[in-house]
Amino acid sequence: MTLLLDTHILLWWLAADPKLPWPAAAAISDGATLVAVSAASAWEIAIKRTAGRLEAPDDLADALAINDFDALSISLDHALAAGALPMHHADPFDRMLIAQAQVEGLTVVTVDSRFSDYDVDLLPLDQG
Question: Model pTM?
């Protein structure tokens, strides 16, 4: 299984934030699991950091390498798929993650309930 981390999941992981659901932490730390981070998340983090709305590592590329996460570029196929998605979710970064997951066959890790409105594999995060 290859996971695609939503931006908040990535940030919680990097900060060892207790908001990270334990099923997500367990899946991410499983050595048999591949973990991908979208260029869309890096873009979102950079924009929000510059606007002063987010604290995040200055060295995101290094943080991804240290954690053995794969960077997922945005392709033309991803862009076209994102543009064709129904408008259940207005956030363009999340729409790109959904499209990438669909095109690449990835499992998304998120606590955003709006992702379930799409035909996309989600990591179950039920904690009880």
Answer: 0.94
